[in-house]
Amino acid sequence: MAEQLTRKTPAPDAPLDELLIDAEADDEQVQQQAPVVPRPWLLLLGLVLVALNLRPALSSMSPVLGQVADGLGLSAAQAGLLTTLPVLCLGLFAPLAPILARRFGSERVILGILLTLALGIVVRSAFGATGVFVGSLMAGASIGIIGVLLPGIVKRDFPQHAGTLTGVYTMALCLGAAMAAGATVPLSQQLGESWAMGLGFWMIPALLAMLVWLPQARQGHGAHKVAYRVRGLWRDPLAWQVTLYMGLQSSLAYIVFGWLPSILIGRGLSPTEAGLVLSGSVIVQLISSLSAPWLATRGKDQRLAIVVVMLVTLAGLFGCLYAPISGLWGWAVLLGLGQGGTFALALTLIVLRSKDAQVAANLSSMAQGVGYTLASMGPFAVGLVHDLTGGWAAVGWIFAVLGVGAIVFGLQAGRALHVQVTREPV
Fold first, then answer.
1. Is the Cβ–Cβ distance between 421 and 233 less than 8 Å?
2. CA 185 to CA 60: how far, in whole Å?
3. Which parts pass through the membrane (predicted)?
4. Range of the domain at 388
């Protein structure tokens, strides 16, 4: 018989992460003992290297998008699809993650999908117009599956440091995005003036991550079989609030990845300069992606933190779009601080709103599956508005709608509650 997992509200007089652990301990039927990780430093290194590979396939395309379109004879609509397709795949393939993990184990799935990611990068670079779309699809699908599994592993193996560890691998994720955004154009120039070589370079970090992750796939930490199947998540209002916050803030992030260099080129920057601004903005995310989850778990809930980082994000976006170009780097830094915090808090909410690792994995699948599908509409809308208006000024309305929506749902998702689900034996 299915057992109810009730939603509990922690008392406000202790740190939130300690209260969440205490709440789990009170329910002996739900509590799962965190497995003993034989070499936690190796697991942590593996998590960091895996996370490092979850954005280069996305952020490396935008600085060379014009060269790719010219070289392959792509139309403006087809070029816009290249910025939307990987993000759409993040959402469409995310629901496969818990199914694969239940069958093979999270660690083994991550190892296999890293190989798929590396192959997708190669296909995108080496097989012309068809390959660039097929490879983008493979890369987006791979990133979507791996990204769903990481919060569950953190919740399971580092339950007392879930917020901090989420910030650590989010920081690694931002670092990977920054490296790809800033280095792809110089790599293309150094490797025979070839955009294909610049994009294909990013298979190397994926292969390195596979080597470091191999011991985790062999050990599995007892996670190859889940204890129960989660039911009722899709009917839970809090789960939908987490999901919509994830989707709306991600939509702004992928607009930045896909279109910010083009917007800045339209304002007079060279492709190299535009790529460096995007890279610099993403590097700044390292600061807030690590600090925001830690600070947000010191208070009674995450609502104030969500509002602050989203307002900072909007200020940076509007500054990059409308403010004098002389102050661009300041607005780019502000944008990075905001977006690093918004994304890190989105992942942290998945962990904090879940009662245990199984619920976290399923909420991660829902939030990222639906959220990234929703997020893919943002880059598409920006391309459509640009084509219709012939400029970038009207894009500010898209920023405003997405940002206000993220604040509205973030205020609900940031409350110190648990999602309410039932569990059934597998």
1. yes
2. 8
3. 41-58, 78-97, 109-127, 133-154, 166-187, 199-217, 238-257, 277-297, 304-325, 331-352, 359-385, 391-411
4. 3-30+38-425
